C-alpha cells in the first residue's frame, strides 16, 4: 500500500512539474495528449487485462464530449457546470456496461465479434453525429464551447487534466492489483474455468469495459473545454484506431504503457508534422515494427529497470476466509430421457440415470458412450434436444456453468483447465473467493490473504502448491491436474464432477490424489461422480458403477455386479448387442 | 412502373455482384486463412490508382487488370513475407499489423499522388437498351465480368487439385502438412491471390467512384460486414452476404437515403455479430 502511494504521488508530481519546465505551449499540447492518454489507459485495461479489444472507444469519447459541451454551453460560468464532467463520465460508463453485459451474457468466446460490434457502433455514431445537426452541430460540430468556469488559460486547465490523469492512473493501478484485477486477467486467460467456479463472467467483463469507457468518457468531458470544439471526427474510425495504436505502442499489458504511448506518438507527430511530409508513414512503420518486434510495446524497454526497483516481497496477513453457508446433504442429480444431437450425430439417445444413496459414482463405458457429454449437457456446455435434468430436486431448464456451479457443483475437466498465466496463489485465490466475496470485497487487497482449512490441508498434501509465485503454465501436467482438483475442492461444493482425474499421473501421484478425494469426500459430505477408464481405480473408489453405451444407460450396480453383467461384457469384449 | 422496377432489380443485381467481387479477395484471405486483413480496402485503392495510371498513359483500359493484379500481388508477397508469416497468421496480431499497413499504404499513395480526387473515365461509354429501358453499358460489362470471374474461381476451387489442397490446409493444417502439402507456399499463394483479386476489383470500380487515398475505408467496411453476415469460408456465405448487404444498400439508398442504408447495414451487422457471429453460412 505504501509502495502504491509513493508511486502514484511520484507520477502526479512529475505531471504537475512539466509546465514550469517546458512552457505554456507544451502545456497545451501535452494537455491534449493526456486526454488521449486517458482513453488509451482504458483500452489498456480492457484489452491488456481482460482481453477485450475495443475498436470503437472514440464513440464514448464523442458522446461524453457532446454531453459536456451542451452542459457548458447551457450553464456557462456557473460552477454547476463542473457537474457536466462526472455526469458525462457516468452516463458513458453505464451505457457501456449495459451494452457489454447484454452482449457477453451466456457466451463463451474470445473471438473478435465484440470488437467488431464496437467498430460498427462507432461507425454508426459517426453517421449520426454528422446527420443530427440540431444536437451535434452536424459536420462542423459544436463550436465556441466555453472553458470550465474559474480556469483561465491553458495552464489552469492543464493542471486539472494532469491531476485527473494522475488520479486515473492511480485508480487503474489500484484496480489491477485488487482481486478484481486478478479476475480480469483470469477472464482473458480461461473464461470457461472462471464460469465453472461460479463467477458471472459477463458482469466481470462488462465491468472492465465500463471502466475503460468511463475513462474514455472522462477524456471526452475534458476534450470539450480544452479544444472548445467538438466535431464528429471524435467518433470516426481513424480516431478510435489511433487510440488502439497508442495502447499497443506503449504496452497494453501495463498501466502506464498506453499513456506513454499516447504521449510519445503525440509528441512525435507534433515534432515531425511540419518538418517532414512523410511523418505519418514513419508513425505507421513505427507501429508495424512494434506489432512485429515488440508485442509488449515500449514498456518492454523498461523491464530491465523494473527488475532493479520492483523487488518487493509482500507478505500478506493470513486470515480465514468467511465460510460458505452449507447444506448438510449431498446433491442429487437425475437425467430423464435426455437427448443430445450435434449435427447428424446422436450423442445422448434418451439417457435416464439418477444418483442414489452412494457417495462415489463411477461412470464407465467404451469411447463414444457419452460419458463426458453427460457432464457437458448437465453443466450447460452442450444444448439438449429433449428430456429433463433435475439437480437437487429442481428442474434445470437452461443449465449454464455459473448457475450449476452456484448450486454447489464443481467440475474438473479431462484436460486440466486452470489459469495458465496466473500464479499458483492467484489460481487458488480465484477459486477461494468464488461464492465467498460480498459487496465491495473484490476491491479489497485483504482478500489475497484468505485461506481455508481445506486449502491448508491440500497444501500439506501437495507441497508444490506452497510455491505460490510460480505461474501455472510452468507446472507439469500432473501438477496442473492436482491444482485444478484443489481449485474445485476449495469452493467446498456439494457435488464434484471428475473426468479421468488421474490421467497422466504417476503411480504415487495417483495414490495421493485418491487419498485426497476420499478425505475431502468425508470432510465435505460430498457426492463425487467420476468418469474413469482405469478399472483398478474404479474398484478402489466406486460405491456404485453406471455403464453407458451409445448414449444410453446400459447397466449399474457394484463393481462386481457390473463386471458379471453379460451385456457389459459383450460391449467391452466387442460382441454385438 | 414496371420498367422502373426492372432497372431497380438490375441495380440490386449489379450492387450484389460488384460487392461480391470487392469482397472476394477478403473472403479468400479471411475465410480461408483467418487473417483479418484490414488493409484490404487499400489494395482495392491501389488497383484503382493502377487503372488511373494506365488510362493516363493512353494504354487500353483492360491492361490495367494485369497491371493491378501484378502490383497488388507483389505488395501482397512482401506483406506475407514480412508481416503475416512472422505473426504466424494469428487473427488478432495480423489485424493490428494490417491496420498499420493500411495506414502506411494510404500515406504512401497520398505522398505520391496528393490527397485530391482523381477521376477515371468510363472505358465503355454509352448505354444499352434493355426491354425499352436504357442501362449503362459499362455496368452490364462489369456484371458479366464479375459473374465470370466469380464462377470460374469457384469451379476452380471445387475442381482443381490446388483447390482440394487449400481445403485440406484450411480443414487441418498439421495433417495437410503430414500428407505432403506444402502449406507454407500454399498459404502464401492464397494470400497473394487475395490481394491480387482486390487489385482487380479496384480496376473494375475505379470509373464509378472518385479515386483518392482514403477510398479503401468505405470498401473495407462494406466487405467486412458482408462477410460477417454471410459467413466466412463458404461460397454460399459470400453470395448471401454480398446480396443482403449490396441489395440493402441499393434499395435503401434509392428509396430513403444513402445514410440510412449505411446505418441499416451497420445495424444488421451488429445483430448478426451478436446473435449469429459465424454468419448465415459458416464453414462447418
UniProtKB/TrEMBL annotation, chain A:
Domain of life: Bacteria
Domain ABC transporter: 333-575
Record-linked SMART domains: AAA
Main location: membrane
Annotated keywords: ATP-binding, Cell membrane, Membrane, Nucleotide-binding, Transmembrane, Transmembrane helix, Transport
Cellular compartments annotated: Cell membrane
Chain ranges passing through the membrane: 33-53, 60-77, 83-104, 116-137, 157-176, 197-223, 243-269, 281-303
Function: Involved in beta-(1-->2)glucan export. Transmembrane domains (TMD) form a pore in the inner membrane and the ATP-binding domain (NBD) is responsible for energy generation.
Species lineage: Bacteria, Pseudomonadati, Pseudomonadota, Alphaproteobacteria, Hyphomicrobiales
A Pfam family of this chain: BCA_ABC_TP_C
Species annotation: Bradyrhizobium agreste
Name by which UniProt lists this protein: ATP-binding cassette domain-containing protein
Topology in membrane: Multi-pass membrane protein
GO molecular function: ATP binding
Alphabetical list of Gene3D superfamilies matching this protein: P-loop containing nucleotide triphosphate hydrolases
Automatic annotation (TrEMBL), chain B:
Protein's UniProt keywords contain Transport: yes
Keyword Ubl conjugation: no
Cell compartments where the protein resides: Cell membrane
Residues spanning the membrane: 12-32, 61-79, 137-157, 190-208, 214-239, 251-274
Topological relation to the membrane, as annotated: Multi-pass membrane protein
Domain of life: Bacteria
Keyword line: Amino-acid transport, Cell membrane, Membrane, Transmembrane, Transmembrane helix, Transport
Alphabetical list of CDD domains matching this protein: TM_PBP1_LivH_like
PANTHER family: ABC TRANSPORTER PERMEASE PROTEIN (PTHR11795:SF447), BRANCHED-CHAIN AMINO ACID TRANSPORT SYSTEM PERMEASE PROTEIN LIVH (PTHR11795)
Family: Belongs to the binding-protein-dependent transport system permease family. LivHM subfamily.
Name the UniProt record assigns to this protein: Branched-chain amino acid ABC transporter permease
Organism: Bradyrhizobium agreste
